TrEMBL record:
Residues 41-243 form the Neurotransmitter-gated ion-channel ligand-binding domain. PANTHER family: NEUROTRANSMITTER GATED ION CHANNEL. It comes from Tribolium castaneum. Keywords: Membrane, Receptor, Signal, Transmembrane, Transmembrane helix. This is Nicotinic acetylcholine receptor a10 subunit splice variant. It is found in: Membrane. InterPro entries: Neur_chan_lig-bd, Neur_chan_lig-bd_sf, Neur_channel, Neuro-gated_channel_TM_sf, Neuro_actylchol_rec. The gene is nAChRA10.
């Protein structure tokens, strides 16, 4: 019986957290970290501790300045839907008073990359969007935060905007489209949006096969509404597009002149000439083919009937 008691005491001693045996102390070791924490880890923990990403990072009586810019990568104009799709990079920068640190306390670290869902972001929307999608049209890319609290965010974005098309001079027409950006829920006393120095950039533009951007402008507007005393600023981008029409000259303009010549020849022929019937039939057939082509290429929602359609009819 005494031997059994001694065995139980020994087993319990090995199972305890600390066991003194022959002058040595034995400890149970827990899981050890694979790597040591870095300065970046410490800075992230210090900045994001108790950080509320849903609260504007400024005192309620201060205004958050947001600087806006756009880099256009590609455009697509859908004439039947009267929409312009712009593939772009949007440039947003602002100051976050909660994300400031002294680089000397963090090994000289002056910038930090944070995920876009970790910090507050201005709710900049396209007011005249052709779709109902909101800020989700921005790509999920990191924000660059500088030690003074300045934040730079350059996500890829796709915008679909409504355009009022004027097809009077089709296929030699020029179209103008507006993109209006602004905060959806904040007024101008809370968020003030300004254009950056570069405005609309097109150095990385992949050209469209049918449309050229011949002019662009970016300006700030201040709007007041009867409901509210505070202003609502927005950034308006004007894009002027010119149709690339060499192929239309060969497919439409040249045959149209042929039809005009056939009509004139028909008047020059004697009334008794049998060729007039054949000529009139050919002219009518060509005009019908033109009308079929126009119905496929020209939307019916344009504000003006193209002059070339008027001529052919």
């Amino acid at each position: 019986m005494a031997n059994i008691l001694r065995l139980v005491v020994v087993v319990c001693g090995f199972c305890s957290s600390d066991v003194a045996f022959a002058g040595f102390t034995t400890r149970k070791l827990g899981p050890q970290p694979i790597w040591n924490s870095t300065v970046t880890d410490k800075l992230r923990q210090d900045l994001l501790l108790n950080y509320d990403k849903f609260a504007r990072p400024a005192q309620h009586y201060n205004t958050t300045k947001v600087v806006f810019g756009l880099t256009i990568r590609h455009i697509e104009l859908n004439e039947f839907k009267s929409t312009l799709v712009v593939h772009s990079w949007i440039r947003l920068s602002w100051k976050d008073e909660k994300l400031q640190w002294n680089s000397t306390n963090y090994g000289g670290l002056e910038t930090l990359n944070l995920a876009d869902h970790e910090i507050w972001q201005p709710d900049i929307f396209l007011y005249n969007s052709a779709t109902s999608s909101g800020i989700t049209h921005y790509g999920n890319v990191n924000c660059i935060v500088y030690e003074g609290g300045d934040v730079l965010w350059v996500p890829p974005a796709q915008f679909s905007v409504l355009c009022n098309l004027n097809l009077k001079y089709w296929p030699f027409d020029t179209q103008r489209c507006e993109m209006i950006f602004g905060s959806w829920t904040y007024n101008g006393d809370q968020i003030d949006i300004d254009p950056d120095n570069d405005g609309v950039k097109m150095e990385l533009l992949i050209e469209n096969s049918e449309w050229n951007i011949v002019d662009k402008s970016l300006k700030k507007n201040m709007k007041y509404y009867a409901c509210c005393p505070s202003p609502y600023p927005d950034i308006t981008i004007d894009l002027t597009l010119s149709r690339i029409s060499p192929s239309y000259k060969a497919l439409i303009v040249t045959p149209a002149f042929v039809v005009i010549i056939l009509v004139l020849v028909n008047f020059w022929l004697p009334p008794q000439a049998g060729e007039k019937l054949i000529l009139n039939g050919c002219t009518a057939l060509i005009i019908c083919l033109f009308m079929l082509y126009f119905t496929q290429k020209i939307p019916t929602m344009g504000t003006h009937t193209p002059l070339i359609v008027v001529v052919c009819t």
